[in-house]
Each structure stands twice: as C-alpha cells, then as structure tokens.
Amino acid sequence: MRVELLLGIVCAATACARFPPPNETLANSMASIRGAEEAGAAQVPKAALSLQLAREQLDKAKALLKDGENELAHSMALRAINDAELANALAREEKARAEAKRAQREVEAVAGDSK
Amino acid sequence: MNTPRIIVASIVSSLTIACAHAPPSELVDARAAYERAAGGPAATYAPADLHVAKESLTVAEQRFKDDGDGELTRDQAYIAQRKAEYSEVLARIAMLTKGIAEAAEQEASLKERNAARTKEELARTKAALADSKTTAANTAAELEAERKRREEAEKRAAQANADLARIAAIKQEERGTVITLSGAVLFSSNKYELLPAAQAKLNQVAEALLMNDPESTFVVEGHTDSQGKAALNQTLSENRAKAVRDYLVSHGVAADRITAKGHGSSRPVADNTSAEGRADNRRVEIIISPKKS
Predict the structure, then answer these.
(1) Is there a domain that residue B186 lies in?
(2) Residues spanned by the domain of B3
(3) A interface mutation test: which of B100, B117, B121 has the most A CBs within 10 A?
C-alpha cells in the first residue's frame, strides 16, 4: 500500500516534470476566443453557447495550470480552442446565410423587373 | 452453494470488465458526430476538415484503448466531436458561399438580359416613332393632295358652271342653285320627248351636276305657260320634268339624288300675256340643294 502510494506520487511528480506549462496553448485559446468574439459569436445564439463553453474551459485550464496539472490544463485549453473555433465558424455561417438571403432577394427583384 | 457464488462473482467481474471497456459518453458522441459529418455535405464541401476530425477521433479511440476512460481521453473525444461539428459548419458555409456566387451570376445575367430587352424596346420605340413621323408626313401629304384634289374639283365645277352658264341661266336662290333651261330648247310644243338639240345641252348639265358636291341633291321641275287646261299643263310639266330627270340619270347622275316634279303653270316667272313672257314661263328648272338629306 505504501509502495503504491509512493509510486503514485513519484509518477505524478515525474509527469509534472515531464509536461511543460501549456502557456502557449492557453495563449492560443485566448486568441481563438477573441477571434470568435470579433466574428460576432456573442450575437448568434448557437455560436454564443460555444463561445461560453470556450470561456469556461479556458478558466478551468487556468485553474488546472495553477494547480500544476499541466497536461490536463493543456488538454482543457485545446477544448477551449476547438469550441472557440466552432463558435467563430457558426458566427460566419450566420453571416453567410444572411448574405445568401440578400443575394437571393436581389435576384428575385431583378427577375421581377424583367417580368 | 459454491456454484452460485462463482456465477455471481463472474457476473460481477464481467460487469466490471464491461464497465472498464465502455467508452465515455464524449467518445460515443464524437463517433456519432463524425458519422453524421462524414455522411453529410462535409465530405464534398469540407473534406480536409472532415479528415482532421477523423484523425482527432482516431487519437481519441487510441487513447481510450491505451489509457481507458480518463480525463485526457474524454478531452480528446470532446475535441474530436467539436472538429466533426466544425467540418459540418464549414461545409454549410461553403455551400452558402457557392449559393451567393451563383445568385450574383444569375443576377448579372438577368441584368444583362434586362438591359438587352430595354435596348430592344428602345429600338422598337424609336422605330415606332420614326414610323409615326412618316405616317404624319404621309398624312400631311395626303391632306395636301386632298386639298389640291378639292381645289381642282372646285375649279372644274366652276368651269362646268361657267360652260353651263353659256347655255342656261344660273341663279343663286334660297332653295339652292337654280339652272333654268328654256322649254323651247328642250321640247316641241305640247310634247315631252327631248329634242336632239336638247341632248347636247343636257349632257353639259349632267356634267355640271356631277361636278357638284356628292352630297347635294337635285330636283328637276317642269313649268308651263298658262295657255290650255291647267290639268294638261300639270301632266305635261310632270312628264317633261321626268324626261329630263331620266336623261340625266342615264348620263351618270345617281337616281337616288335626283327627283322630278311638275308645277304646271302655277309658278310663272314672267307675264303670261305676252309671247315673250310665256316663252320664259315654259321652262325646266334644275335646283341643286347642297347637303340635303
């Protein structure tokens, strides 16, 4: 029992030592969140949800980093990045949809002129 | 007693094993998300992103196989699910973008067609305008020609009347233009057959009548002097008027424009006591009534 515990501690310690602090991943997730915000994700309901998830995961990653859980922090930051990018894409989709509708209306207006 | 225990133990252990091998919900979701994406438009419109999602899922599966249901496995599966969803969104964006481009193309071609049609309409309008100008010019020309025709017709009528004036008296009265032909020139005494010499004169009269306004009508009136019985004079005047009318009709004057009437001796123009006066009273008058219905 003691040996196992010791082994666990050692393992954890070596793991901590092996995995560097994921500062860059966290920075990337912050940048991705900013990108999604700039794309207007907060104004599109579906995108806003993903953006919210990304922010929460970034907070979790920061907390994990603080606790020295570097690998988990890295993994959580990656989740944040992927949610932020999804939020960004959803916001762009909404814009494209609006643009498509506008284009269609214009075609109909021009087609109406030719009647 | 021993056997049931073994069974229970084996069930418990198999359950444990099953639990150990059951994938986390994140992985189940990630697999479903990838399947859905791979079966949708992402395969066509976002193949690179779909591929990234597949690799991400493969990593999650490998991690589940190697490390089991751990935090990192769950994170990786979660990420794989998001990547699958991301590929779907990108595919939809690509389709929308394509639709926008097609709409723009359609709009441009419609505008081009509209412009061509407007141009065509303009050309047609111009042609129509030119046409109407030509028509107007033609109308003006026709009016001018008509005016000339009338002028000439009036000139001819005036000439005919002038010619007629040499053989007959022409007067303008309230009832119209009155042409008076002497009875002596037309008929023998007490007869109503036209004399050969009368025919030349009546030819001229017919000609003059035909020169008149086509809407005007003519009345041929026969008159006698007061000698002899009034009833005979009446009949004679009627027959004479009729003879003149029939001759004029046979020379082109429309039958429905000309009527004959006898007045006997009832309307003298001169004194019946003198031979001269009686000669004046023996006459045929042709009255031209303009535009009488």
Answers:
(1) yes
(2) 1-151
(3) B100
